[in-house]
Amino acid sequence: MKRTLFTVALISFVLVLGFSVLACGGGGGGGSPSAVIKQYHAAMSKGNLKGAMAFMEPEMAAMMEGLWAEIDSDQYKEAVEEAKKEAAKTGGIVKTEEEIDEDKATVIITYKDGSTETMKMVKLDGKWKITMGK
Questions:
Q1: Which one of 44, 91, 108, 114 is most buried, counting C-beta atoms within 10 A?
Q2: Reported pTM
């Protein structure tokens, strides 16, 4: 039971941490940092957690894959539902503001509910990816 709660809490933390921007799409990361964030958010809203990984830097995606390998299908379904709920709470993206400095970007997201979130991105092989780094 403790392991299950810990796993769900950890997955929820990672989802909320990187939650603003995903969409289903192969390759992910094309376009501007804001476009990638909007695609990421669309995927999260649909509960497409694996699709969201296409918009994450490889290290972050590998961490997510490792977490999913540790849980059973019921826990995964629970994580998907949690991602959908978190995305729905904000009401969607109203606007984004981005600051680009060569191969790094910061995107400030404003949601319909008035909340904001800042996401860091890096450009890897010509594609913008969400990062947990600086």
A1: 44
A2: 0.73
